[in-house]
């Protein structure tokens, strides 16, 4: 298992701070801090803003400094300063932005994504306990088939709410409805248009570390998406495989089409 980003020090993030989603003071960003301001207050403001930057990356996926600045109402210089600190603390990492389709001229923009350590700071699940339980099921009750049965039963239990949301939506809005239902379960999901279809993006996975060891969880989830949306879907990327976002491709279809076997995440 990966360690939690809970180190103390110069404005470093602690897990309980990252989980605090309340309104925060934005000290020293849009204007200079008043002279003589207590150092403790300044440090608290720095940490609060830094947490907002990390939380925005969690909710929206890998982001450029420019996008983060616009999203949070900060200057790019302020965002870059916080990103430098988050990189130093192993909470986020810089990556080359993936380009789909024809690549434009110039160097691709640098995006910042959460590391495993950064994700751990947001997770409150008992990852090791869950992995141990699944391993015990695997060893005692039928190997991989038992794990698959558990994974399907688990996602089926969640699927009732997803199905209700999809059935209440217009056909062209079903992927968006599924994304909203997933977000209510902590997956920070979004839907976006893609060539000849749509992409369902889950920017957070509460069970990512367990799914690293038991990919059956991802496969069962992909199967249920296929059943709910009534079409073959293809998993393009998963957080459990080291990608920044779980991405599922949903082709444009006739809304009367029947579901088929779901695509699996490439190894």
Q: How many helices does DSSP assign?
A: 10
Contiguous runs where pLDDT drops below 50 for at least 5 residues: 1-42, 255-267
What is the β-strand count? 6
Mean pLDDT: 78
The proportion of residues in beta strands is: 5-15%
Instruction: Tally the structural domains.
Output: 2
Main β-sheet, spatial strand arrangement: 3-4-6-5
- Would you tell me the structural class of the helices and strands? alpha+beta
Shape: globular
Proportion of helical residues: 40-55%
How would the blueprint of this fold be written?
Layout (H helix, E strand, L loop, with lengths): L14 H4 L20 H22 L4 H8 L3 H13 L3 E5 L13 E5 L1 H7 L4 H14 L2 H25 L6 H11 L4 E6 L2 E6 L5 H6 L2 H14 L4 E4 L8 E6 L16
Antiparallel strand pairs: 1-2, 3-4, 4-6, 5-6
Give structural notes.
- This protein has 267 residues and is α+β, with helices and mostly antiparallel strands.
- It folds into two domains: 15-122, Winged helix-like DNA-binding domain superfamily/Winged helix DNA-binding domain (Arc Repressor Mutant, subunit A), CATH 1.10.10.10; 127-251, no CATH class.
- It is built from ten helices and six strands.
- Strands 3-4-6-5 form a four-stranded antiparallel sheet, with helices on one face. A two-stranded antiparallel ribbon has the order 1-2.
- Strand 3 and strand 4 form a beta hairpin.
- The longest helix is centred in the middle third of the chain and has 25 residues, at 143-167.
- It starts with 14 loop residues before the first helix and ends in a 16-residue tail after the last strand.
- Mean pLDDT is 78; it is low at 1-42 and 255-267.
